[in-house]
Structure formats: structure tokens, C-alpha cells
Amino acid sequence: MCMRELEERIARDGVVKAGNVLKVDAFLNHQCDVELFDHMGAEWARLFSGEAITKILTIEASGIGIACVAARHFGGVPVVFAKKAQSINLDGEQYATTIYSYTKQKEYPVIVGARFLNKGDRVLIIDDFLANGCALEGLIELCRQAGAEVAGIGIAIEKVHQGGGDRLRERGFRVESLARIAAMDDETGEIAFA
């Protein structure tokens, strides 16, 4: 399923950089177009209707805004975000794992307080990008540790050519990406949608 509005915005305002990087900071992950986020949330709510979502899980920082706006379309279910660093605000029992960030080119811990992710929760994971799937693997692992079920994965932009989405789907996860990119060219700036 593609969302034409998001594809058009990527084509107009996205910038292809060397190293297979797509900058969408003008509307998605630095400056936020809240109206677009609202439309994205409505689309995920349509796609995942009937899944009885009890929590939305994302990772700091880029996923938070999208997830919070989307939550309004799921009856205001709580949004939980995995933190990328230990802090004094994280207390009590925790679920933790490590992920590799493609854009930052380094590993991060990801941590969720155990009281926010529970056995029996039906979790919708939402994130801005899906490339190789490392961040999502970390969030799936946190759900596994909690005994929560991953009811679905909602992605704003999937880079299909990097294969992360295919690997998750092969494992039985339902992944719904609103824009799917087949290829990008940093010399011409061209973006081909799948």
C-alpha cells in the first residue's frame, strides 16, 4: 500500500545523498509536517483496523512525533519510545538490547522501562525509515522480552532495495510501508518508487 501524498512530498522535498541516504528533514524527521503525520496516522489506522492495538512502540527521536500523532487514530493508545541511552530517569526493571544505526554508523543500546511494555500487549511498531531492519529488530526483541505481541509494523518510508522489509515479512511480520523506494541516485537526485 502506498500513500500518494507522502510519495509526492518525498519527490518534491527529499534529497538523495551519497551512501544511500535520503534526507527528508524538511517534513519528517527534523521539521515536522503535523498535517502529513495526521494523514499517515489515519492510513495506518485503516491498515491495522481490527488488530486491537494496545500500545504503539517507536524509537527516539524521529519516530516519536509520527507515533504520537498516529496514536490519536488508535483511540489514544499509549506511545512508548525506546531510549538510546541509559539515564537517571530510567529506573526499575528494564528491557534492553543493542541496535546498529545505518545513518549514524554506530551501535546504540535501546531501553524500555518494563512497566511500559507488558505481557499481552498488542504492539504496533512505528518508525520513519526501514532500510536494513536493524532498529526494528531491536524493537521486536524488546517486545519479545516483555512477552508482548508485535501486531504490526508501520513504516513511513521503506528503502525496498536494502531488503530489511523483505526479511521481516519472510519471518511473518506484517509490515505496512506508506512509501516504498526501489532505487535512488545521488548524482541525479532521482528517486524511483516501488
UniProtKB/TrEMBL annotation:
Top-level enzyme category: transferase
Gene3D superfamilies found in the cross-reference section: 3.40.50.2020
Keywords assigned: Cytoplasm, Glycosyltransferase, Purine salvage, Transferase
Catalytic activity entry: XMP + diphosphate = xanthine + 5-phospho-alpha-D-ribose 1-diphosphate
EC numbers: 2.4.2.22
Stored InterPro entries: PRTase-like, PRTase_dom, Pur/Pyrimidine_PRTase, Xanthine_PRibTrfase
Pathway note: Purine metabolism; XMP biosynthesis via salvage pathway; XMP from xanthine: step 1/1
Highest taxon listed in the record's lineage: Bacteria
Record GO terms (molecular function): xanthine phosphoribosyltransferase activity
GO process annotations (BP): purine ribonucleoside salvage; xanthine metabolic process; XMP salvage
Keyword Transmembrane helix in record: no
Subcellular compartments: Cytoplasm
Domain Phosphoribosyltransferase: start-end pairs: 50-162
GO cellular component term of the entry, any: cytoplasm
Residues that hold 5-phospho-alpha-D-ribose 1-diphosphate according to the record: A131, N132, G133, C134, A135
Binding site for xanthine: L22, N29, K159
Function: Converts the preformed base xanthine, a product of nucleic acid breakdown, to xanthosine 5'-monophosphate (XMP), so it can be reused for RNA or DNA synthesis.
Membership in a protein family: Belongs to the purine/pyrimidine phosphoribosyltransferase family. Xpt subfamily.
Quaternary structure (record): Homodimer.
Protein name: Xanthine phosphoribosyltransferase
Designated gene of the protein: xpt
